[in-house]
Design brief:
alpha+beta, 19-stranded antiparallel beta sheet, two-stranded antiparallel sheet
Length: 490
């Protein structure tokens, strides 16, 4: 009986918290929604309750929040003046346009206020507030300023201890009524879990960021899109939710985990099948130009690429200006594959080592033309030893040059084309570098169709993101599933 009296109030608190969120008041056709657990979030659950959720950000993630400028205005910075006043969860949504008037849509934010007096002080107000809707003319900045259609206006209202912010006064008068067709039901049908953070987007127009990689991802994603975030020791993991996949996971070798050791890397398998499925949706200029360029410059035709490369595991890793391509085909008799790699290597060498060819002109003078010619290039034998034995590699390099192009078959790895033997040594060795990434808590699925490890600096020149994170790791366990993590800096 005592246990019942303890569990019942805790259960009611849990139910109230779940039902009082902004998401329950939003229509199902809401274009965009964000839910974010704050560093000041209170734990309402004792450790022995089975429904406890550890969604309070740790130290590393809390530091990230300090650098995220969600909303701010002159003399009110996000990290110093606004964030400390909020607790619980921040919910931010863009409401759809209603009727013929564009004033029906707009942004709305909900957060729990833990210091009303300090909030009033930001607007030079006294504490005799009666619950009315207040409007202020302020130059909004941060993410809010980028998303709003009214960047010089903010409207807010306080109900109990809950603060509601908007750029449209009409929105705040409509929210108190719960909806039977709410966005909460939509998220529940997608089995989305509200952990550290959650992003929902109805269609591809939700994120107007001028970045080619993000645009490519948003254009190719399936909608509605739900991205759930969870925290680890020094990383933020993410997972894209959607319809349950009927496809079987594709097994990958242990080498796939080696991607995390290098500056940046790519892994893929069965790419021929993936390309065939995606070819119809690719832009015409890419389809019409990619294969001719590959053939004319590198001597690799479409049939060879899809036949020799497309059915094997492929690893492409980068370290500084050097790179290594590994076709994990363990059959040493595949002379076609080796010949294809040598053609590509010779073409690359010829481009970086053009020959001077004199061309006579009509006036008797001569023009010196630089040509990338592969005729006459000869691969030299390059003995190489590693832990598993000795291998005969072949090399192309200029006289006196320390780097060049190296190709060969390594029994434990498959076929290799690289620009530097030290990188091959690192790739073949049992390096401990990946341990740092594993200890960060970055989620690494055992089975992957494709994966990429990309430094943040290669994705964006934004100083804020470069200060927050070092690398993003994206994995695709199945053709319709994407997960990964963002590695945080100390």
């Amino acid at each position: 009986m005592i246990l019942l009296f303890v569990l019942l109030p805790a259960g009611l608190i849990y139910y109230y918290r779940e039902q009082s969120g902004l998401v329950n008041y939003l229509p199902a056709d809401t274009p965009f929604y964000l839910s974010l657990s704050l560093p000041q979030a209170k734990k309402w659950f004792t450790p022995w309750l089975v429904w406890q959720r550890a969604d309070k950000p740790n130290t590393a993630v809390s530091g990230l929040y300090q650098k995220l400028d969600l909303i701010s205005w002159p003399n009110a910075s996000w990290s110093e003046k606004i964030l400390p006043l909020f607790s619980g969860r921040i919910e931010l949504a863009r409401l759809p346009l209603t009727g013929a008037s564009p004033t029906g849509g707009g942004l709305v934010l909900k957060a729990r206020l833990n210091d009303r007096a300090a909030w009033f002080g930001l607007f030079n107000l006294k504490s005799d507030y009666g619950g009315e809707v207040l409007t202020f003319d302020l130059a909004m900045s941060g993410a809010w300023g980028a998303l709003t259609k009214n960047p010089n206006k903010i409207v807010w209202r306080i109900l109990g201890n809950d603060l509601y912010l908007s750029d449209n006064a009409d929105i705040l008068g409509q929210l108190p009524a719960k909806r039977t067709d709410s966005l909460a039901r939509q998220l529940k049908s997608l089995k989305a879990k509200v952990g550290l953070a959650l992003i929902y987007a109805k269609d591809k127009d939700f994120l107007a960021i001028d970045n080619p990689y993000i645009k490519a991802l948003s254009q190719s994603a399936a909608y509605p899109l739900v991205i759930g975030f969870s925290q680890a020791e020094k990383a933020v993991n993410f997972n894209i939710y959607g319809e349950k996949s009927s496809a079987e996971p594709i097994k990958s070798t242990a080498l796939a985990e080696r991607l995390y050791e290098f500056d940046s890397a790519f892994y893929g398998q069965n790419l021929a099948s993936a390309y065939t499925q995606a070819e119809a949706s690719l832009p015409d200029n890419l389809k019409n130009n990619f294969w001719p360029i590959l053939q004319n410059f590198y001597g690799v035709d479409k049939a060879a690429a899809l036949t020799e490369f497309g059915v094997s595991e492929i690893f492409l890793v980068f370290s500084g200006t050097d790179w290594l391509l590994n076709i994990a085909n363990k059959t040493p008799e595949n002379s076609n594959l080796l010949a294809t790699l040598k053609k590509a290597g010779a073409a690359l060498f010829a481009i970086t080592h053009p020959e001077a060819v004199e061309q006579p002109l009509g006036d008797g003078t001569k023009l010196v033309e630089l040509r990338a010619q592969t005729a006459g290039l000869a691969w030299r034998e390059e003995p190489w030893s590693y832990a598993a034995g000795a291998v005969k590699m072949e090399s192309l390099s200029g006289q006196g040059e320390k780097s060049g192009y190296y190709v060969g078959f390594v029994p434990d790895l498959g076929y290799i084309l690289t620009t530097a033997m030290p990188l091959l040594n690192q790739y073949a060795a049992n390096s401990e570098a990946a341990v740092d990434v594993k200890n960060s808590g970055c989620f690494m699925p055992k089975n992957m169709l494709m994966a990429a490890s990309i430094p943040i600096k290669h994705l964006t020149a934004n100083e804020l993101w470069q200060a927050i994170a070092s690398k993003i790791i994206i994995t695709m366990p199945q053709a319709d599933k994407i997960s990964g993590c963002v590695l945080l800096k100390d």
